[in-house]
Amino acid sequence: MLTFQKIYKTMDHRRRKGNKKSSHKHVTFRESEEKYNKSHSGIFNTLKTNKLVATFSLVILLILLNAFWPSPKLSIQVAHWRDSGYHFKYNNHVIFYRSIYEVESRVAHDPVLLILHGFPTSSYDWRVILPKLQKRFPNIILPDFLGLGFSDKPAPYEYTVMEQANIIESLLTTLNITNVHILSHDYGDTIAQELLARQQDVEYIMKFKIKSLCLTNGGIIPSQHKPRPIQKLMIMPGVKNVLSYFMNRFVFYSRFGAVFGPNTQPTKDEFYDFYSIFAFNVGHRASSYVLMYIPERHENEARWVGALEKTNLPLHLIYGPLDPVNTPDGFLKHYKDQVPHSSVTVLDGIAHYPQVEAPGRFIKSFNQFLDRMERDYYPL
C-alpha cells in the first residue's frame, strides 16, 4: 500500500522532472512589474503625443477660421458712415476720414475741430455728439488711424505714434488747414501729445497750429497707465502674432465691455457696430501690431508729458473715474500734480469712453471749456 509520503515524493519527482523539460523561465514579481510598465509606457507616450497633435491641430484650425472668416456685415448706420467718408494716400496706404462741413465745399472753414479717436475703435465713436459739435465748429475732421477703423490695416507692420502724427500732419496739409482745435481720446491723446511736442520744438516746422486741446481718458501719463491683461499678452514677443487671430467677436465683447461702467455698457447693437468696424478688412490681424504704442509711450514719457507741462494753450481733461486703465488714485492724481494749469471735469459713474457713455454730459463739459477759452484766451 502506498503511503502519503511515497505519493508526495512521486508527485514532487514528476514536477521537478517536468520543470527541467520546460522552456519557461520562472518570473519574479519585480520582473513582471517592470515588463508591464515598459509595455504600457509606450502606449501612454503615444496617447500623449496624439493629444499634443490634436491640440496643435485645433489651434491651427482656429487660427485659420479666424484668419479667413469673413468680416461681419456692417449695419446701415456704420455703412453710411463709411460711404460718407473720404480717402487720401500716405506712403501707399489709404487713410479714411470724415470731413463735416456746414456746406459742401472744399474750402477750409474756421474754426476747425480735429477729433482723434482711441484704440481699438474709430472715428465712429463720435457720431452721437457730432450735431452738437457742429454748433461750435463749421469744419470737423475725423480721421481713422492707420490700422484702425476704415483705414488700411497692414500686418505685419511697424506701427508708431510718430507715423500716425505724420499722417495727421499730411492730412491737414492736404486739406489746407492752418489752425485746429483738438479733441482726443485714448490712443488719440498720445498722438495729440506728439503733435503738441512738435509745435513746441523751435527747430520743427509744422504747417498748422494747435489752438486748444481737450483730452479724455487715455494713457496720457504712461507710468500711471494700467493696460488690460489681454493687452499685455498681445504685445509679448512670440505671443502677440498668434493671439491676435483669436480676437473673435466673443473675446472682443468681453474685453471691450470691461472698460465701460457697470451702468453704461454698450447695447447689443453698439457692441456689434464696434466689433464690425474693428474686424473690417481683417483688422484683428493688425491689432497686436498697433498696440506697440504701449511700450512706445513709456519710451517717450518725458517728451509727451513734458509737452503738456510746458504748454500755455487752453487745456482741458474730461475724465471718467471708473476707468480701469486710468484710475483716479493713480492717473488723475498725477495729472493734476504734473499739469496743474489744465482744467478738469470728472464725470461720475463713467469709465473709459465718456463720449459714448454720457454724450450729453460730455458735450456740456466740452462747451464749458470752450466758453472759458473764449473768455480767457481768444474767440473761436
User: What is the CATH architecture term of the largest domain?
Assistant: 3-Layer(aba) Sandwich
Helix content: 40-55%
For the secondary structure, the number of strands is 8
Per the CATH scheme, the topology name of the largest domain is Rossmann fold
User: What is the first-to-last residue Cα distance?
Assistant: 135 Å
What is the global morphology?
Answer: globular
Query: What number of structural domains do the residues give?
Result: 2
CATH class label of the largest domain: Alpha Beta
Strand order, main sheet: write it out.
1-2-4-3-5-6-7-8
Give the helix/strand class.
alpha/beta
Please report which band the strand proportion falls in: under 5%, 5-15%, 15-25%, 25-35%, 35-45% or over 45%: 5-15%
How many helices? 16
**What letter string, H or E per element, gives the SSE order?**
HHHEEEHEHEHEHHHHHHHEHEHH
Q: On the 0-100 scale, what is the average pLDDT?
A: 87
CATH 4th-level superfamily of the largest domain: Alpha/Beta hydrolase fold, catalytic domain
